[in-house]
Every structure is written in structure tokens, then in C-alpha cells.
Design brief:
2 copies of one chain form a homodimer. Chain A has helices spanning about 120-140, 175-190, 195-205, 250-270, 305-310, 320-330; strands spanning about 5, 15, 55, 70-75, 90, 95-100, 100-105, 145-155, 165-170, 210-215, 220, 230-235, 275-280, 295-300, 315. Chain A is an alpha+beta fold. Chain A folds into 2 domains: about 5-20 and about 35-175, HIT family, subunit A (2-Layer Sandwich), CATH 3.30.428.10; about 180-330, HIT-like (HIT family, subunit A, 2-Layer Sandwich), CATH 3.30.428.10. Chain A has a 10-stranded antiparallel β-sheet with strand order 3-4-7-9-8-13-14-12-11-10, with helices on both faces. In chain A, strands 2-1-6-5 form a 4-stranded antiparallel β-sheet, with no helix packed on it. Chain A starts with a strand and ends with a helix. The relative contact order of chain A is 0.13. The interface between A and B is large, with 95 and 95 residues. Strand 15 of chain A pairs parallel with strand 2 (about 15) of chain B.
Chain lengths: ~325, ~325
């Protein structure tokens, strides 16, 4: 059984694997692992994954068989397990609990070599719709405080399988970064009676210097204090604390801006590996709705994060976001 | 001129390079760069670095010539520049300032192929003594709020030169991570009237399960909520908020435990790349002395940090610290 432990100084949570058979040089973190040459995410490999939780299939709905467009399955090597109680307890001065949660994989396409940026617009809508449906479902489980949706594309970004996929982890605690964002946004609201993200959207849309792409509902921009070169955020123009309240129209516009933004990054940065992470309000947190504003953070992997950053949470970014925005806007899309 | 910008939500600071001649795929971050086959840190290459700030030389003291044991020079490609005023200003809703600070390199040995773990005990003392002397000197400059000392060993840990060296960056703001540690330690002190790090040292020494190495003044341990496999902290047993108040005896004991701990990591993990970062109280912050406790955090680079960690500050560690401690204790040192 894995454990979740809390750092007593920073309040940061860590999932500790308790399988004791790792040799010191075995570091395939238990996310996903290749299964001997066969890609478990391809069509016709459905038996290589645990039974599906959700799938979009036109026509006859036969589960765990070919014919699907998007498929969500439990992670075969989950960091958190769905069964059991939390078992919150103290170990001397320390806090810990059982590693209870959900760990799922959204398989974004039946095809092996198509990445999200290359998919047809309606396929990207299906992928985001799968995020939304899984989030709504996982929020029903009262043990889970947060549903974290993130994507690693490319080995340098931590992906262990090439086939396009996204991970969903539901956690029994609110991750530290999310709590910090909420606290920061709350401080701004207390001072100004405005959402800090709405202020950003408004100032950036007006200035335009850091905007990469926009449509009626969303703006994609390089943040003023980007940690990484070409870091790009996508934010809704109209205030909303939760991704999962998106209407169908908004979902389509989000798919469109995400697809175009990833295409710009792909072309400008020669298929750069990246991570993206959906930042949304914690489950059952109605009190943050006035000042928290959901958004997607895309982080291309171009630089190495070293001692300076780890020790300080202070970053050195060699590319000004204004310059990155110019380059990304200049990309000619077909 | 580089800039320092603040994230308006999290309060995190970022150094943004404003040289506008980077192509999108040029990402040699401006730390150090190789100079055409010649190692600028080797003896007889003294002219390849800016003039030295400090050097330990037995006998005749002729600066910037061979004969030194440890040498401190300005970084040739500094992230922060020493000359100028801070120019704190607002850009609409955002905060920024000029990238003023110091960026120095401690060259740990005149020899190219010797890493810190391999050096004679008295050489490690000299390296740490150079840290201490530079920290005391940099704290005289009232523009600087923090002196960050960190080491990247190995390309995977972000080192761009192989020759053993440490970097020192003095910053005009307190890094976010340090502020968080101080706040966490303050909360613990407010509740318990005790230093949280002293509590950790005391609980860990008693239990012994996560201890790797100890001596009269220091303990090296795997923290309870280790983010990374084989993450190792070295803490002073007796409460002290500042590294730079070390006595000569303590400096020798710190050198000894650091050297032995790095040797254990080197042997157990086959010369693993690592970062270490000195965590000490900010300059001119007498008010934290009761509850902040300086320490050194060593982070071996065995796993890739991916979207999950970046999005959440929530980590998955595949090696329990208790297991790592057993393995490190078992290493036979000569």
C-alpha cells in the first residue's frame, strides 16, 4: 500500500510508494509502463488495459472492443488506489494517510501516431469532453478533494508511452500549488473586490503584447512572469472558477484555441515536449467561486530545472514572454 | 538589462532575460558556458574567468595566477548584475525591478576531474569556508535580501561545466520557497514554542530509521516526506538560523558529514547527478532566529519531474525514505 505523507514545514504532500523491491537504480515511476512492444493504448489492444470507465463510440456500444474514439481506463500502475478508507494518522510529529484516490488515463485517439495538435477539431472536443465527464463523476466521491488533469507529451516531459494520452488523478488532499493560487487570488479579491485572473485577462487583451491566440470565449497568452520559455496559459474571458461548468459552445471554443495554440508551439519549437495542467477549483469549494478562475497552463520543456529553481522556487527564463508571443503569433497555420 | 518580475497570483519571482537575439531553439540558460574546449575553471586558465573575488592560496598571494586551492569568481554570464539600482516599478497590475544582484562561482578545486565527494577532508573545509566568507561579504550589500548557495553536479542536474563548482546568487528579494519555510516554521513555533527543525532532528535521531550519517554537530537524514528518491538533508543538531555563524569546529564537522554523505550517494547510486541547496535565514532578518533552522538539502536526479508535480507541487516518490536510509547506511566507505 502506498502512503501520502505531509512535509511538516511546507505542508506539501508526497505519495510514497511502499513496494520494497526497488533496486536503487530502478526508477520507472509507477505511472505507465510499456508492455513489451505492444502499445496498450492502440485500437485492438483493449485487453491490455484494465476495463474502460468511459468511452465514446459511434453506433453499437460494445465496451472494451475496437470502434471507440476516446477511451478512459484506470491506470494499470496507479499512484493512488480507489478502494479503502483514508486512515488519517500521526507518526510522532508527522501526518500521513493511505494513498487513496483515483488514477485514470484518457486515451485521446485510437491511432498511435496522432498527437493532440494534429487531431480533427471534433476529436479535440471529445478529449476535453472526457475530461469534463470524468471530473464530474470523480467529484461525487466525498473522499476526494481535488481532481488533477494533466498531460505529459514527449519523453523529456515525463511521458513513458508515446500514444497520445492525458492523466487524471483524484487526490484526498488539495495540492499545495492549488491552495497557494487560491490564497493569492483571495488576497487580491480582499484588496480590490476583483478576480486577479480577470484583471490579467483584461490587461493582457488590451495590451496585446503577450497574447498568442484568442476567440470569443478564451485567450491564450504568455504570462508576464513566465517561469519557462514559451509558457502559455489559456484562460476563459468570462469569470468561472470551475472547468466543469463549461457549456457545449465553450467546450468547442476551448478545443479550438487549445488546438491552435499547440499547433503554434509545435511549429515554432519543432515539436517540443510539453506538460499541461488544468487548474480548477477544488471539489466542494463553493466559497472560492468569486475569486478563483480556472485556466490551463502549458509548459514546454526547453530548459533544465536545476538547483537554483528547486531551492528557491525562483526561476531564470531566457526568453521574454513578449518575444515568445511575437514568435508564436507569426507562425502560419494552414 | 535583465528584469525581475513577480507573478501576481503566487508572488513568485522570475528573472527574465531581455536579450532579444535568442532563436526559439537556443536554450543555453545564461549560467555558465563552455569556452571552446578549454575548461575556464582549471588551473592555468585563470585568464578565462573574470578577476577573482576570493581565493585561498598557500604561500605567496598572487591573484589570478596558478597556485590556488579554491577560487571564487564572478559568473561570466550572470543572471543578475551587481551594478545599478533596483528600479522597483509597476507595469499596470504587475510588479518588477531591475535584475540587480550578484552571481558568483566557487571553483572547488584546481583539478578538473575531482568532484567534492573525492576531495581530501581539508579541501572540503576550504570550499565551505569560501561559501561562508562570500555570504558574510554579500550580506553587507543592503540591496540584497538573500544569498542562495547551490550546486549542480552532472549534466542531468543542470551543470553546464563538469569541473567541480558551486554557484552563489545574491537576490534583491527573498525567494518564495524560503518565505514559505519561514512561515511554516513560524506557525509551528506559535503553536508549540519549539523549532520544527529541532523537533525533526530530535524525533529522527531517536527513531534512527531515516538517519544516514551523524556526528557531534550534525545529522544527515532522509526526510519523512521526501519528494525525490534518496533526497537527503543535513541539519545542525543545535538550533541555529544562519549557516554563516558556524564556528571553525562546526565547519570541519559539516565538511566531514557532507563528504561522507556524498560518498554514500555516489557509491549507492553509481555517481548520480545531484543538486544541493543551502537553506539559511535571509540577510538582516533577526526576527526569524528563534524558529528558523538552517540546513542543506541534497536532491539526487533519478526521476523526471512531470506535469503532475509542476501542476500541483505534489510529488510521487517511488522509494520510501526508510528504504533509502538502509541502503545508504549499508554502503562501505574506505
Amino acid at each position: 500500500m502506498h502512503e501520502i505523507r505531509k512535509d511538516p514545514i511546507l505542508g506539501r504532500w508526497v505519495i510514497i510508494a511502499s513496494e520494497r523491491n526497488n533496486r536503487p537504480t530502478d526508477f520507472t515511476v509507477n505511472r505507465e509502463q510499456p508492455t513489451g512492444g505492444i502499445c496498450p493504448f492502440c485500437t485492438d489492444s483493449e485487453s491490455h488495459t484494465p476495463p474502460e470507465i468511459l468511452a465514446f463510440r459511434p453506433g453499437e456500444p460494445r465496451p472494451n472492443a475496437p470502434g471507440w474514439q476516446v477511451r478512459v481506463v484506470p491506470n494499470k500502475y496507479p499512484a493512488l488506489r480507489i478502494e479503502g478508507d483514508l486512515g488519517r494518522r500521526a507518526v510522532g510529529m508527522y501526518d500521513m494517510m493511505n494513498a487513496i484516490g483515483a488514477h485514470e488515463v484518457v486515451i485521446e485517439s485510437p491511432l498511435h501516431h496522432v498527437q493532440l495538435a494534429d487531431m480533427a477539431p471534433e476529436q479535440v472536443v471529445r478529449v476535453l469532453d472526457a475530461y469534463l465527464q470524468r471530473m464530474l463523476d470523480l467529484q461525487q466521491d466525498r473522499r476526494f478533494r481535488y481532481v488533477l488533469i494533466f498531460k505529459n507529451q514527449g519523453a523529456e516531459a515525463g511521458a513513458t508511452l508515446e500514444h497520445a494520452h492525458t492523466q487524471i488523478i483524484a487526490t484526498p488532499v488539495v495540492p499545495k500549488r492549488v491552495s497557494e493560487e487560491i490564497e493569492g487570488a483571495r488576497r487580491h479579491f480582499d484588496l480590490h473586490e476583483r478576480c486577479v485572473f480577470c484583471d490579467i485577462v483584461s490587461q493582457e487583451s488590451e495590451a496585446g503584447t503577450r497574447v498568442v491566440e484568442e476567440n470569443a470565449s478564451f485567450v491564450a497568452l504568455e504570462p508576464f512572469a513566465s517561469r519557462f520559455p514559451y509558457e502559455t496559459w489559456i484562460l476563459p474571458r468570462i469569470h468561472a472558477s470551475r472547468f466543469e461548468t463549461l457549456t457545449r459552445d465553450e467546450l468547442e471554443r476551448l478545443s479550438s484555441i487549445l488546438r491552435l495554440t499547440l499547433q503554434r508551439l509545435d511549429i515554432a519549437l519543432e515539436r517540443v515536449p510539453f506538460n499541461y495542467v488544468l487548474h480548477t477549483a477544488p471539489s466542494n469549494s463553493a466559497d472560492v467561486s468569486e475569486f478563483y478562475h480556472w485556466h490551463l497552463e502549458i509548459m514546454p520543456k526547453l530548459t533544465k530545472v536545476a538547483g537554483f529553481e528547486w531551492g528557491s522556487d525562483f526561476f531564470i527564463n531566457p526568453t521574454p514572454p513578449e518575444q515568445a508571443a511575437i514568435l508564436l503569433r507569426r507562425v502560419r497555420l494552414e
